[in-house]
Automatic annotation (TrEMBL), chain A:
It comes from Tistlia consotensis USBA 355. This is Transport permease protein. One of its GO terms (molecular function) is ABC-type transporter activity. Signal peptide: none annotated. The lineage of its organism: Bacteria, Pseudomonadati, Pseudomonadota, Alphaproteobacteria, Rhodospirillales. Belongs to the ABC-2 integral membrane protein family. It is a multi-pass membrane protein. Residues 30-261 form the ABC transmembrane type-2 domain. InterPro entries: ABC2_TM, ABC2_TM_bact-type, ABC_2_transport, Alc_ABC_transptr_permease, T7SS_ABC-Transporter.
UniProtKB/TrEMBL annotation, chain B:
It comes from the Bacteria. Residues 1-23 form the signal peptide. Pfam families: Lactonase. This is PQQ-dependent catabolism-associated beta-propeller protein. Keywords: Signal. SUPFAM superfamilies: Nitrous oxide reductase, N-terminal domain.
Length: 279, 323
């Protein structure tokens, strides 16, 4: 393998990384079930208790009053992708500790490409989880128009990339697997709760204008709104811009973070304390 | 494959286009706004708001669909709105506090429930004169007329009765006791049954029109809604008698009922305090007036799904649709 890699090699690399992720996913059936149980518990139990939270308001993209369970489904789809993004960041840390990361990064293909492949593999898995979740929600009377499922796909790809890139960025900060719990507390929960996933922003504004502004600047809010609008065949342009912008920023930082020459890995002296890839 | 897809989508566009060929108009009376909201049935956009007399409640179209009769309760008469010019062109006598009325299938006369003096007034819409007054129970409200125009059913809220009145003799032929506070009466299109809703009782009584006996009582239960809030008011039954829709007041739901088995199939979420219902052309959609949230909801009959809600004036009460 000398000179510039050919497109076929790029494809083979993508195939290898996605294949590995898919294999890993298939071998961890518990993970799949767990990824589904979490949003389903919210849908079946939490939504039942919070029926009145919406009150009487019609907010876009809805054209009439909706039940709470209908409202939170896009938020729960976002939740699946958020957890999935963090899960793949966890697997990056694991890979680094186990040394398979080194094998991956030794590839002659550019680092940004390898990391993007890794991201795409994670997004593919999350879309699979979302599909099963939406199928179950359909029987729970959450029935968007059929074309909404098609328009949802590009939105899922974008939001999945954004959350995956965030996970990737975070994983470049984490030294050890044990620190993952910190991610849960400091990233997942605040992001999820300070967003429009569970309650419409106008409701939050009524109680706390400050929280309302925090929610507005939360990228996760925009991922959820992008998904919500897409599910009804519409585009929320503000959210689309925010998600694309955040994806690019997170990805750029993550690629920087994984650069052994400049990144945080090098500064810390490498993963697992045993010297970074190429370092 | 691509060709087939294209042909399919073209067909879909065409069928959507033809569905829009029904140019219907929706009229909504705003009890507090003292106005009639006019809505284009196709675009669902408000095209006009016409000021009328005080406290407009029950509304119905004239037989030729050129005029709208409006119970302007606090003016103690009925106003006649010309639907082409959207101007009030006259009034009809009604007795005090008219609330709800029903037009004879032939287009004349108009039977008016006078809530405050326990009467049903029979008004000739051509001459503008009162033909008869029929004393009924306390607080009459609901009015239903048999398809042949021979039997009028009036419900009195405080007496909790459905009065069967002979429209020839203007005499009460029978009284059927129903649950507390009956608000609305509706005949099936074959004239065999009368459905009467009881607001406080929370039921709909299905009465055999010939035997004048209750054959079934429909009850409601919505998860998460307290039973007292389930207050049935408006009723609409499809012509083929397959489906019935019942507005459940402060439960903010419209119940969809199998009109053959009387089983409740679904509860549809609409705006707050849903009062009355009216079918659109071809019974493809049904509109509900939501009193507290100041809007109407549009329900797709075939899909049994609320597709849109449209803001109207203050306290929407009655609804009528011109084909």
């Amino acid at each position: 393998m000398s000179g510039r890699p050919t497109p076929a090699q790029y494809l083979r690399c993508l195939d290898g990384i996605v294949g590995r992720e898919a294999l890993r996913f298939l071998h961890q059936r518990e993970r799949f079930v767990a990824a589904l149980v979490r949003p389903l518990v919210w849908l079946f139990i939490f939504a039942a208790g919070f029926r009145s939270v919406l009150g009487v308001s019609i907010i876009p993209p809805y054209e009439t009053y909706v039940l709470y369970q209908v409202y939170i489904v896009p938020g729960l789809v976002g939740m699946i992708q958020l957890f999935n993004g963090m899960q793949s960041s966890l697997s990056m840390v694991y890979d680094r500790e186990m040394g398979s990361m080194r094998t991956l990064l030794l590839s002659p293909l550019p680092r940004w490409y390898l990391l993007t492949c890794k991201l795409l593999a994670g997004v593919a898995v999350s879309i699979l989880q979302v599909a099963v979740f939406l199928a179950i929600a359909w029987f729970w009377d959450v029935q968007p128009p059929w074309w909404g499922y098609l328009t949802l796909l590009p939105a899922l790809l974008l939001s999945g990339l954004m959350l995956g890139a965030l996970g990737l960025l975070l994983s470049s900060f984490i030294k050890q697997l044990e620190n993952f719990a910190g991610i849960m507390n400091f990233v997942i929960f605040p992001m999820f709760f300070a967003s429009s996933a569970l309650y419409p922003l106008w409701r939050i504004r009524e109680t706390s204008p400050l929280l309302y502004h925090i929610c507005q600047f939360n990228p996760f809010t925009h991922a959820v709104e992008l998904i919500r609008f897409a599910l009804y065949g519409q585009v929320n342009w503000t959210s689309l811009a925010a998600v694309v912008g955040c994806t690019l920023v997170f990805l750029a930082l993550a690629i920087y973070g994984y650069d052994p020459a400049r990144g945080l890995i090098a500064r810390r002296g490498g993963p697992g304390g045993g010297g970074g890839p190429g370092g | 494959m691509l060709q087939r897809l294209l042909a399919g989508s073209l067909g879909l566009c065409l069928s959507l286009g033809s569905a829009g060929a029904f140019a219907s108009t929706i009229y909504v009376s705003n009890e507090k706004g003292n106005s009639i909201t006019v809505i284009d049935g196709e675009t669902l956009k408000v095209t006009a708001t016409v000021p009328v007399g005080q406290r407009p409640r029950g509304i119905t179209l004239s037989h030729d669909q050129k005029q709208l009769y409006i119970c302007t309760s606090d003016d103690n008469h009925i106003e006649v709105l010309d639907l082409d010019s959207l101007k009030v062109v006259g009034t009809l006598p009604s007795g005090p506090d008219p609330e709800l009325f029903v037009l004879a299938p032939s287009g004349n006369p108009l039977y008016v429930a006078n809530e405050n003096d326990n009467l049903v007034t029979v008004v000739d819409v051509h001459t503008g004169s009162v033909r008869a007054e029929v004393p009924v129970g306390v607080e009459p409200e609901g009015m239903g007329i048999s398809p042949d125009g021979k039997v009028l059913v009036n419900t009195s809220e405080t007496t909790s009765m459905a009065h069967f009145i002979d429209t020839q003799t203007h005499q009460i032929m029978a009284n059927v006791l129903v649950d507390a506070r009956p608000r609305f009466a509706e005949f099936t299109s074959d004239g065999k049954q009368v459905w009467v809703s009881a607001e406080v009782g929370g039921t709909v009584s299905v009465i055999d029109a010939a035997a004048r006996k209750i054959v079934h009582k429909i009850t409601f239960a919505v998860p998460g809604i307290r039973p007292e809030a389930l207050q049935p008011v408006g009723i609409s039954i499809t012509k083929d008698r397959k489906l019935a829709f019942v507005a459940l007041g402060p439960a903010n739901r419209v119940a969809v009922i199998d009109a053959q088995t009387f089983e409740v199939l679904k509860y549809l979420l609409v705006g707050q305090r849903v009062w009355h219902l009216a079918f659109g052309p071809g019974e493809k959609v049904i509109y509900s007036t939501n009193g507290v949230s100041n809007d109407i909801s549009v329900i797709d009959v075939a899909e049994q799904r609320v597709v849109k809600s449209v803001t109207v004036g203050a306290l929407p009460w009655g609804v009528a649709v011109r084909d």
